[in-house]
Amino acid sequence: MRNILLVAKREYLEQVRGRAFKMTTFGVPLIFAAILGIAFLSSRGLGAGKHLAIGSSDALLASEVKGQLIGDKDTKTKVDVISPATSADRNTLIDEVKTKKIEGFLWIETPQGKAPTATYTSQSSGDFITGSRMREAVNHALLNASLQSGGLQHQAAEDLVKGIPVETFQVRKDGSVVKSNATASFWKGYVMAILLSMTTMVYGMNVARSVIQEKTSRIFEVMLSIARPADMLAGKLIGVGAVGLTQIGIWLVAGAIILGTPFAATILSGDYAVHVSALETVLFPVYFLLGYLLYSSLFAGLAATCETEQELQMFMPLAAVPVWLSFSLIMVVMNDSNSAWAVGGSLFPPTAPIIMFLRMASQVPPAWQFAVSIGLLVLSIVSVLWVSAKLYRVGILMYGKRATLPELVRWLRYS
Question: Which residue of 15, 89, 111, 186 shows the fewest CB atoms closer than 10 Å?
């Protein structure tokens, strides 16, 4: 046990003191904060302060569209109405856009006996926000005008056009009814799944690279004089895993501080409001550790059979297949968290950490499924560690020749 702790301490301190660890651990939260800050500042007044014009032969329709556009006081939109409008007025508006007197104009045609048509002309082809506001304003105005022409009062037509907001609620297992948000649930599960897959893969690769580097530097020959191969592998897994937990812990603290700021609260509100439950907080490190141990023990065994990092890289697409499979099921899982695919993916050890958190974002699975999922993960880790330790014991001292499949089988037999 002493040798395991010594190796773990060496691995931990070697990576924590490295420049890469410091830059990623503290750089990622700073970059994330900068991105949120830029998104907040750049979105303020986005699409606001526009000077627009509306040309139409239907004065009532043009007036309704103007009312829709200037109804949002935050946009501070100035709208000129030209009605009835002629082709000469259209040419004049084009010249005004060209000379930047106005940002753009909406031209509405109302041919007799046909459906109205509308075009929006501006200097920028990428002003999708104003274009979207125009489409919404025209559609609402057409419906509003039609309702009023049918005898409905103006305010009643406005209320009908606005529609009725539909709130969503979820019935929990204890019978309580709580407010839910499908958009927030999707993004929460997606982000946590990415964080799990990214960290487990990255630190699993760190273990593999560490094996390759020490193997090529022949430092193993010195280390083996004081420690058994199994102790060295166990210490390496513990040390690198502790580095991962340290980094994630720092990120979580920094994330909580950043998300508590006013500009983050403004962005992450409404459909993007995210709430993390106590169960998710407890299970996240559990599934991280189990996923990390599974992937890192697999990568360590692979690395022991390789001669160079380039050779190891060739195995990475194969090792990443479970991650790709997990994300290919994301829409199925989020749409029906109790489907056969969702349950199977959350119990299958290579995909369990990611799929289980995707399911939890939508609906908390039964307790027995958590127990089976974690139990199968533990059994898989023990099995993969057994194979990897045998490959590791022989492979770390093999140089100059790539191991063939029959040779790997012999390693498992006589080690």
Answer: 111
Q: How far is CA 143 from the centre of its chain?
A: 38
**CA 28/CA 403 separation, integer angstroms:** 39
CATH number for position 92: 3.40.190
- Tell me what the mean pLDDT of segment 165-176 comes to: 59
Read off the tokens for 284.
């996240």
Mark 294-332 as b/e (b = at least 16 C-beta within 10 Å).
Answer: bbbbbbbbbbbbbbeeeebeebeeebeebbeebbebbeb
Is pTM beyond 0.70 here? no
- Are 407 and 390 in contact by the 8 Å Cβ rule? The answer is no
| 329-383 per-position pLDDT tens digit | 877 887 777 888 888 888 998 888 888 877 877 777 888 989 999 999 999 988 8
Tokens 């995707």, located at residue: 358
**Helix/strand/coil for 270:** helix
Are 266 and 385 members of one domain? Answer: yes
Using alpha carbons, list the distances in angstroms from residue 2 to 199, 226, 245: 27, 11, 22
Q: Retrieve residue 411's tokens.
A: 């390693």
Q: Minimal CA–CA distance to 122: which of 112, 133, 113, 110?
A: 133
Cis status of the peptide bond prior to 322, with omega within 30 of 0:
no
Q: What percentage of the chain exceeds 90 in pLDDT?
A: 2
- What pLDDT does residue 267 have? 55
Does 19 or 219 have the greater pLDDT score? 19
DSSP code per residue over 91-134: HHHHHHHHTTSSSEEEEEE--TTS--EEEEEES-S--HHHHHHH
Question: pLDDT confidence of 171, banded at 50, 70, 90?
Answer: low
| Statement to judge: residues 129 and 201 lie in one domain | no
Residue-number span of the structural domain to which 143 is assigned? 51-163
Domain identity same for 144 and 209: no
